[in-house]
Amino acid sequence: MRFIFKGAMPALFALLTTATAFAQEDLLKELEQSSEKEPAYVAQTFKGTRLVNGHTVETVGKGTLEFIFAHRFGRLNQGLYELFGLDDAYVRLGLQYGLTDDLDIGIGRSSTDKTVDGYLKYKFLKQSKEGVPVTITAFGSTTYKASPRETEVPDGFERTDRLAYTAQLLIARKFTQNLSLQLMPTYVHKNYVALDEGDNNQVAIGIGGRIKFTRSVSVNAEYYYRVNPAGNTAYRDALGFAIDIETGGHVFQIVLTNTRGMVERSFITETDGKFFKGDIHLGFNVTRAFQLKRRQ
């Protein structure tokens, strides 16, 4: 029996070695096929979901809830009496949740014009290291402006006149680890506009980007050019700059912009400040992510 056992050991070892070799070969084939089916995507085109006032192509990921606190002070050129705008405050509180890794739903409320907004955001194309040159995210939102009060509206003004809709494509490319650029063609429809607010249908082209200086700090810029501002004598193009500071689950942005608005309807079509005339609002965006579902 001892002889049979000793003779079987080399054979058993050879069998296990052969099986392991075949298993490794099969695993390598599966990995190669998987890498062919799933190209390596470019990650973190931007640090967070906000560029300055508007969105980036980034989504929060499945099961993640992001709390967004945005704040804008008054204009810097208001002088010492208003403490250079610090006496005024405009706030938006928002939540954004990842239904999937690429599909987000969000809701928020702004003190500016008492506006409630809801939106969907879907990343349907991703930049890859070989092949796809850009990431494209579709964004659509609806806003309801509760201001002015019912007793202050003109005759014939309906509740549906408070509604506005935004459709936007966010097209971005990460050129290097330190440079990302984004294009934002935008369409805004308002059910009601005043005489000096232009057309019900307004088109804008936004451009923006970020330059990364350190692992946790970058500078962002954003500008929206209004394509058809004819008849709109009250408002200007929106311009903004931000310093991004990432600290763990937080992204903190220090903002300088010529708009009080923090939703697309407001800052794209209702910005009334001239940036280079000193109509600059200091502010910040703070985002905090909470993982509600464990990632698989």
Structure description:
The chain is built from two helices and twelve strands, in the order αβββββββββββαβ. It is globular. It starts with a helix and ends in a 5-residue tail after the last strand. Mean pLDDT is 85; it is low at 1-24 and 30-36. The protein has a twelve-stranded antiparallel beta barrel with strand order 1-2-3-4-5-6-7-8-9-10-11-12. The longest helix is centred in the N-terminal third of the chain and has 36 residues, at 2-37. With 296 residues, the chain is mainly β.
What is the topology?
Blueprint: H1 2-37, E1 64-75, E2 89-98, E3 103-110, E4 115-125, E5 135-145, E6 163-176, E7 179-190, E8 201-212, E9 217-226, E10 238-247, E11 250-257, H2 264-269, E12 281-291
Antiparallel strand pairs: 1-2, 1-12, 2-3, 3-4, 4-5, 5-6, 6-7, 7-8, 8-9, 9-10, 10-11, 11-12
Could you list some keywords that capture this structure?
globular; twelve-stranded antiparallel beta barrel; single chain; 14% helix; 44% strand; disordered N terminus; 296 residues; mainly beta
Question: Could you provide a short overview of the structure?
Answer:
This protein has 296 residues and is mainly β. The protein has helices at residues 2-37, 264-269; strands at residues 64-75, 89-98, 103-110, 115-125, 135-145, 163-176, 179-190, 201-212, 217-226, 238-247, 250-257, 281-291. 14% of the residues lie in helices and 44% in strands.
